[in-house]
């Protein structure tokens, strides 16, 4: 994990401003993907000028890669805080569900790296994060191959449902219990995921 100051470090004003721009980039790329979002949109969300975005990050590709690392770091931190052997798929799944319900743009940002994997550096970054998640779940969480496969498959289903805006659509089937694999009362208010669109 590399995009944020490590625990115990004091954030400088520059760190805070950079993180604000990364949050804006995650929002923009979650909505439009790599090919659809623009640096002008990121600048607008961040409340800065487009030249400032370019000055800090360079190219749109570099911005996407750093935003992906940033979103991935937040996800890894959420997992790491709740992992201990033996692997508890329900507990870890709830961690992911809670994160998705609070910040759906993180999952959409990560999912959109898969859809832009025709760009070799994005494909490489997507593989890096995937393998880091697998390593964390295996080594810190004690997950076996079958548990990993089932957990990651559920995560992919959640990401796909978010990308399709399947959840929280008024007057339509409530897909949250199916997608999250939880009772409706536990899945919570799926309408919150519409905030990312």
UniProtKB/TrEMBL annotation:
DNA-binding region per Swiss-Prot/TrEMBL record: 38-57
An example Gene Ontology molecular-function term: transcription cis-regulatory region binding
Alphabetized UniProt keyword annotations: DNA-binding, Transcription, Transcription regulation
Record PROSITE patterns: HTH_TETR_2 (PS50977)
Residue ranges occupied by any HTH tetR-type domain in the UniProt entry: 15-75
Gene3D superfamilies (alphabetical): Tetracycline Repressor, domain 2
Highest taxon in the source lineage: Bacteria
Keyword Transcription regulation: yes
InterPro entries hit by this protein: Homeodomain-like_sf, HTH-type_TetR-like_transc_reg, HTH_TetR
SUPFAM superfamilies registered for this protein in UniProt: Homeodomain-like
Cited Pfam families: TetR_N
Name the UniProt record assigns to this protein: TetR/AcrR family transcriptional regulator
Organism whose genome encodes this protein: Flexivirga aerilata
Taxonomy of the source species: Bacteria, Bacillati, Actinomycetota, Actinomycetes, Micrococcales
């Amino acid at each position: 994990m590399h995009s944020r100051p490590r625990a115990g470090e004091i954030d400088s004003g520059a760190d805070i401003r950079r993180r604000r721009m990364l949050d804006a980039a995650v929002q923009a790329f979650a909505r439009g993907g790599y090919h659809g979002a623009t640096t002008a949109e990121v600048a607008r969300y961040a409340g800065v000028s487009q030249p400032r975005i370019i000055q800090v990050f360079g190219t749109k590709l570099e911005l996407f890669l750093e935003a992906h690392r940033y979103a991935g770091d937040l996800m890894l931190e959420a997992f790491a805080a709740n992992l201990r052997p033996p692997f508890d798929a329900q507990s870890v799944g709830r961690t992911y569900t809670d994160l998705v319900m609070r910040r759906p743009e993180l999952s959409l940002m990560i999912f959109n790296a898969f859809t832009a994997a025709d760009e070799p550096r994005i494909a490489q970054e997507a593989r890096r994060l995937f393998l880091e998640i697998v390593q964390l779940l295996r080594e810190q969480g004690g997950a076996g191959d079958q548990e990993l496969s089932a957990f990651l498959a559920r995560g992919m289903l959640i990401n796909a449902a978010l990308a399709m805006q399947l959840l929280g659509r008024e007057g339509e089937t409530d897909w949250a219990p199916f997608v999250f694999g939880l009772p409706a009362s536990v899945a919570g208010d799926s309408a919150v995921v519409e905030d990312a669109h």
